[in-house]
Design goal:
2 helices; globular
């Protein structure tokens, strides 16, 4: 699975980089009876919900074209947690 995730990251990086979005991590995890392909994104000054939606719209067709994962899964695109910036 690691090699598949690496291929996914390579395919997505170029397109997302054009939008100044970087990939923090990609994981494939089973929770209960569901599989999740989690793609954590980051961007200077953080990512808002509209950017996540735009990124998801870019990611979906690329994943469909690659068709690397045989199992059914839920695509979960989210932003990297930044924590409380007011903490010292």
């Amino acid at each position: 699975m690691e090699s598949k995730l690496k291929k996914i990251e390579e395919a997505l990086s170029t397109v997302l980089k054009e939008k100044e979005i970087s990939i923090d991590s990609i994981t494939f995890e089973r929770e209960g009876k569901y599989n999740f392909l989690r793609i954590v994104l980051d961007k200077v000054n953080g990512i808002d919900l509209d950017t996540i939606v735009d990124a998801t719209n870019l990611i979906n067709p690329i994943l469909d074209k690659l068709d690397l994962i045989d199992e059914e899964y839920i695509l979960d695109v989210l932003s990297k947690e930044r924590g409380n910036e007011n903490e010292c």
